[in-house]
Design a protein that fits this description.
The chain is of the alpha+beta class and 645 residues long. The chain has 18 helices and 13 strands. The N and C termini lie far apart (132 Å).
């Protein structure tokens, strides 16, 4: 018998070896790379199943099959081992009553290596053969049953992949092997049905691949690759080759869109994008190409728009308009296009000003500037009195349409005494009130206008010295025209008296009522009018006035004292009446309808428009007009100027 010391040494050595073995097992389990084992490495997708299966085609025939498959679009499929792993471990495993004996464990180890190497079936060293042998020796071995289940799942996964890529021959070989495994009847039946479908769709897929290579992706109708892929999907909705083929068809159509954009043909690009959207709605490649086309469209549109801006800056409106139309064809929703269209319209109609814009011109040869001008928008209106107007007279008829199709600027108010004084001093002009002597002024004692031989343009409506901010009165038509001509000389721009049509259009301010503020007495301060609440210095009141209205002035008020009309014009229908360029005509028969002045050579009477501080309500309506000799000077008449754009 061994001594106690010997037994102690044996036990110590055995315990030490046990700890070492246990440590190695734990390291192998948790850190397999220490032993140069990579557990994530999947076995190769195998048609190499160890030895060839009976009846398998030879290698050249295999290459032909692969070439046919590769004629279509490329596919990306997960390895069969991964697909099998996703299937889980759902086998009905036997209840193991005892541990596997060493011989069975040796078989299981060899089977696991074969499974890992992809040697599933085919010979006695395949995983299937080894697991079956282990089950024969120990029918209740759970590892053997699970291993055989894993082989079957791996085979099913590989057959599914072969069917997905259209490799019917390989799928059939593996299916024959699957039949030899236990519990595989349901899988075999399902896979046989899939193989029958594959036999129908395989020629269609091959033909579709050929059409795709020939450039017949989606055309002609009924004979394109897309048509065949759609037919395949009807027979086999899960066919991966057909799905990938449709992906490639859409890519071909999207390539057409990009090619069209490269040629600046955005119409064809949009057409191709619409066709691609029908093929695979909302796909990622559809979104990517659509964004590229959109970016290229915007970049191209902005480039052409920059050229249009340059043309407009150079004064070439025709070229700017042509380029703007190109931009509109490329990108009709470009945000900057609307702003440029407005600039183009303003350049064409208003010399690059905007309707409602106020400006002044500086003199080019001496200090000073013109009266403030406001840009009047273009448009149409009915000139004259309507048939329904009970106050109409023959001179206001017939009412007729007038179109102002070219913008102009009008002085915001009547010319003031100070502005006219600047003209007289700088030009040496002698006004008619000085040259011919006198004017017609208001007589407070009689309440009527009277001739005053000493009154001049420097006096107010009653013949007293006028302040500079009052509208200049006692001015003849000749004086008004002389002032406008002088502004033209000082600025290099065309200044003139307004035509009668321009004056009424501007006075109305886009309204159709009797007055620009409405049809009756104003409810707030609008103009210097004859109000029932106004009183003269001696306490006189108007016999016929706007009821309930009081502006606080008997005679003209300083310019721009009250409210502007809708076009931004002050004193346009009150304060003082104003000269226009037109010769006087008793009616509008044969009057021009384009807004131009109606002139006759050598005419001696001209049109006066707008109401004044002493006009009755009937003389203030928008259609009211009167005629006066060109040399008439009155304390109720002044003028304003127009500047052509």
């Amino acid at each position: 018998m061994p001594s106690n010391a010997t037994l102690h040494r044996q036990r110590t050595l055995g315990g030490t070896l046990g700890v070492i073995v246990l440590g190695c097992a734990l390291v192998y389990h948790f850190f397999p790379r220490v032993f140069h084992v990579n557990p994530a490495e999947a076995p190769p997708r195998s048609m190499s199943l160890g030895t060839a299966l009976p009846g398998s085609p030879q290698q050249p025939e295999r290459a032909a099959v692969i070439a046919e498959i590769n004629a279509g679009p490329p596919l990306t499929l997960a390895p069969a081992a991964v697909i099998a792993a996703r299937s889980g471990r759902n086998a009905h495993l036997p209840e193991q009553l005892s541990a596997d004996p060493p011989a069975v464990r040796e078989l299981l180890s060899r089977a696991a290596k074969a499974l890992h190497a992809g040697q599933l079936v085919g010979d006695k060293e395949s995983a299937a053969a080894l697991y079956e042998q282990a089950l024969k020796e120990k029918p209740d071995s759970r590892r053997a049953a699970q291993g055989l289940f894993d082989v079957r799942v791996r085979l099913v996964a590989e057959i599914d992949q072969d069917i997905a890529v259209g490799d019917a021959d390989s799928a059939q070989d593996l299916l024959d092997a699957l039949r030899t495994l236990p519990n595989a009847a349901d899988d075999v039946a399902q896979l046989e049905a899939s193989l029958k479908t594959l036999a129908k769709v395989r020629p269609m897929l091959a033909k579709a691949a050929g059409l795709l290579q020939q450039g017949k992706a989606d055309q002609p109708d009924g004979g394109s690759a897309l048509d065949l892929y759609r037919q395949v999907q009807l027979l086999d909705p899960q066919n991966a080759v057909a799905e990938q083929g449709i992906f490639e068809v859409q890519r071909a159509v999207l390539d057409r869109a990009l090619a069209a954009v490269a040629q600046n043909d955005f119409t064809d690009a949009d057409k191709a994008l619409a066709e691609a959207q029908v093929i695979r709605p909302g796909s990622q490649q559809m979104q990517d190409v659509s964004k590229r086309v959109s970016d290229m469209r915007e970049q191209r549109a902005n480039g052409v728009l920059a050229q249009a801006h340059s043309a407009l800056d150079a004064g070439n409106i025709a070229l700017a308009n042509k380029l703007a139309e190109q931009v509109r064809a490329i990108a009709p929703d470009l945000p900057a296009l609307a702003a440029f269209a407005e600039q183009l319209t303003n350049a064409r109609l208003y010399a690059s000003y905007k309707p409602g814009q106020v400006f002044t011109d500086r003199y080019v040869d001496l200090p000073g500037k013109t009266p403030a001008m406001v840009v009047i928008p273009t448009g149409s209106f009915q000139m004259g009195a309507a048939d329904s107007d009970g106050d109409r007279v023959e001179s206001q008829l017939p009412q007729h349409a007038v179109t102002i199709d070219k913008g102009f600027a009008m002085a915001r108010s009547a010319v003031s005494v100070g502005q006219f004084r600047e003209f007289v001093r700088a030009s040496g002009y002698v006004p008619d009130s000085v040259k011919l002597g006198g004017a017609s002024v208001y007589d407070e004692r009689s309440g009527a206008m009277r001739d005053d031989s000493s009154a001049t343009w420097q006096d107010d409506y009653a013949g007293r010295k006028a302040d500079d901010d009052l509208p200049v009165v006692n001015i003849s038509w000749n004086d008004a025209k002389a002032y406008a001509d002088w502004l033209s000389q000082r600025t290099g721009k065309v200044y003139r008296l307004p035509s009668e049509a321009e004056f009424e259009y501007a006075l109305r301010g886009g309204t159709t009522s009797r007055y620009w503020w409405g049809d009756g007495s104003p409810t707030h301060l609008v103009e210097n009018l004859t109000g029932s609440g106004d009183r003269s210095r001696s306490g006189r009141r108007w016999s016929h006035a706007f009821r309930g209205y009081r502006d606080g002035y008997w005679g003209p008020a300083p310019v721009m004292t009250f409210a502007p009309n809708p076009f931004g014009l002050y004193d346009i229908n009150g304060n003082v009446s104003e000269w226009t360029a037109d010769c006087w005509h008793d009616s509008y028969l044969r009057a021009p309808n384009d807004g131009s002045a109606w002139l006759n050579p050598g005419c001696v009477a001209h049109v006066v428009r707008g109401g004044s501080w002493g006009s009755s309500p009937e003389q203030v309506i928008s259609a009211y007009r009167q005629g006066a000799s060109s040399d008439v000077r009155s304390g109720r008449v002044g003028f304003r100027v127009v500047r052509e754009l």
